[in-house]
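Q: I'm a student working through a structural biology exercise. My instructor gave each of us a protein and asked us to get a predicted structure, then write a short paragraph describing it. Mine is Phosphoribosylamine--glycine ligase. I'm not confident about reading structure output yet, so if you can add a plain explanation after the C-alpha cells, that would really help. Here is the sequence I was given:
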Amino acid sequence: MKILVVGGGGREHAIIRALKQSPQCTEIWCAPGNGGISYDATCKAIPATDVDAMVAFAKEEAFNYVVVAQDDPLALGMVDALTAVGIPAFGPDKAAARIEASKVFSKNLMKKYGIPTADYAVFDDPAKVLAYVEEKGKYPVVIKADGLALGKGVLICQDHAQAEEAVKEIMLDKKFGASGNHVVVEEFLTGPEVSVLSFCDGKTVKPMVSSMDHKRALDGDQGLNTGGMGTVAPNPYYTPEVADRCMKEIFVPTVEAMQKEGCPFKGCLYFGLMLTPDGPKVIEYNCRFGDPETQVVLPLLESDLLTVMLATTNGTLEETEVQFRDGAAACVILASGGYPLAYEKGKEITGLVNGQLPGGGATVYHAGTALQNGKLVTAGGRVLGVTATAATLPAALEAAYAASDAIHFDKLHRRSDIGARALAALKARD
Ligand code: AMP
Ligand code: GLY
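A: Happy to help. First, here is the predicted structure for Phosphoribosylamine--glycine ligase. I'll explain a few features afterward.
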C-alpha cells in the first residue's frame, strides 16, 4: 500500500515509523513533514490545512490510504473530502471531529449521556460569564474557549480579576479568533491526569496503553503550558481497577453516544482524564493521537499499526487484535529555549546521523527540524522527542536522558524531571 500521513510533527514521525514496520506498507509519504521525517518518508510541502490541495495531491499520487493525524484538517473535513473521492482515510469525519473542535458540543454530549466530567455552563455573552463566576464565588475557576486554540484556550483563574482578564482575552480581544465566540466555564478538578488514546471504528473501542504528559515548560510543573515536554507510558496511576471503571463509565458510553448522535467516531479518540476523589472524569477529548503521547504509546504497540488503522476505517475493529508489549517507554522533548513564547530558529543540531543517534539506544522523533544545505537545523518550539523503551520505567527514563545527552543545539531546553511523578507513584504503590 502507498500511504500518505498528513501533518509534520513528532507524532506524525512516530506514526510513520510504526507504519513502515508493516509488511503491507510499500511506500510512505508525509505532507508537509519536516527535515527529520524526510529520512523516513518522502515529504511534500502542502500545508496540513489545505484540504483541496491535499485531496488533489492524494488523487494524483493514487494513495491507497491517508492518515490524517492533525486536529485542524480533521475539523475542516479532510476525511470527508478524501472519502468522497474514493480514498480511504484514517480519522474521524467533520461531524465526529466536533468532539474536540467544539467544547460546547463535547460538554453537552457528556451531560446528555451521563459521562463524568467537570460541572459547567456555556456562554456567548461576556457579562453573563462574569456574573456567573461571581455568583458561584468559587476559585480557581476554569474558562475555556469553545474551539481549537493550539492547546492554549484553557485559562485557570485564581480570582475574579483573572476571570475578567480571561474573558477579555478570549471573548473581546478574540485571541483565539472565532474559537472564543462561546466559552465554557468549568469547576476546577484535582487529581492525577492520565492520557488514554484509543482506536475506534464507530462501534467498538480498544484503548491503547495509558500515558502521562508533562504540559508545563519547566521542572516541577512550573512555567507556561506547552504542547507537552515529555511523556511516559504506562501511567502508574492508571491501575487495572481504574481502567475497568473508565471503560464502563467513559469509553464505551462515549462511543455509544457518538453513534446515537449520528456521528460515529472512527480513528483515534484521545481521552484526557483526571482521577478525582470522586472517580475518573473527562477533562478533554481529542479527535486524534496525542503529541507527545504517541511517541511513547506506539513504540509499545505489538500489533501491526496499519492493520489496526484499516480496521477502524472498515468497521472491523472488534475482530482485530490490538496488543501492547510489557515494559515501559519514556520520551524527553528537546525544545528551543523560550518555547512556548518566542524562540530562535535555524540552530544547527549535532549528534545525529541521518536524523538518528548513531549509538542507538533510543529513537529520535523529529518535530521542529529542517534540512538546510544537508544539515539539520531547528525550525520549531518543540524540536525533537527522544524515546527509549525498557523493561521498567526507571530504565526507560535513564536511557532516554542518556541518549538525549548526546544531542546538542544552541539554547536547547529540556525538563530534567520527566517521569519523576510517575516514579514516585510507583514507589508509593510498592
Ligand atoms: P486542555 O487544553 O483541555 O487539555 O487543558 C489543559 C490543562 O488544563 C489540562 O491538562 C488540565 O491540567 C487543566 N484543566 C483543564 N480543565 C480543568 C479543570 N476543569 N480542572 C482542573 N484543571 C483543568
Ligand atoms: N499532549 C496533549 C495533546 O496532544 O493534546
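A: Here are two points you could use in your paragraph. The mean pLDDT is 96. The two ends are 46 Å apart (CA to CA). It's a good idea to check both against the output above yourself.
Q: Great, thank you!
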